[in-house]
Amino acid sequence: MTDSARALTRDAPVAVRCRGVTKTYGSGTSAVRALRGVDIDVHIGELLMLVGPSGCGKTTLISVIAGVLDRDGGECTVLGEDFSTMSPTRKAAFRGKNVGFVFQAFNLIPTLNIAENVAVPLLINGWKRKDAVSAAKDILGRVGLGERVNDYPSRLSGGQQQRVAIARGLVHRPKLLVCDEPTSALDHVTGQRVMELLRDIAGRNDLSLVVVTHDQRIFEFADRIAEMDDGHIERIGAGQGHKVAERKITAEAK
Prior knowledge:
By secondary structure, this protein is of the alpha/beta class. It has helices at 3-6, 58-65, 88-98, 114-124, 129-142, 158-170, 188-205, 241-253, and strands at residues 14-25, 32-43, 47-51, 73-78, 99-102, 176-180, 208-212, 224-229, 232-238.
């Protein structure tokens, strides 16, 4: 049984556990209830996709899971820890070590070249600049941007900037990576390559991934697919990720 298949078993270890999670924006008559009692687990080494219509709460949920947003109610633990019990300093340190986030808007720093952008999480974690930039260049090579490491974000296409954002989310080898539409600006071939990279890294490092997507072309990479609507998880079904992993193992053995 592959790591991905094991993640689907009842007793698989859990990286993220949410119970009754709620989040409301605003107050009074203008309040918007983005999350209305979400229950979900993410297993260690699993690639879980969140799908559903725009505005159903997907991005809010991954932001709560990653500690970017505070929840209003319910329970949520990440790697056994609860962000709501942490001081701001402790939360920043925990996220810097354990969590990667790929933003849909990329959030690249325009005054830094792409190697420096990718190195930022390592610098925050105390790495020496030379070592951080070297590690950044290595991961940029793995997403197909090895020849562009000295370019600035303004010189890259949207798809290339998206790959930089993915490299930045992976460079510090987090235990949990959350991605908001990671292939939305990528062509089919590049999107497949990026998802293969994510699956490969997850399988080798027990990395848990939560991916928000509307891109049906990448559904085959999911171990499970959670369907959201109106702030709820409506259904969770098995994906085909374990078969992708098995195909890769078979190919490597030949």
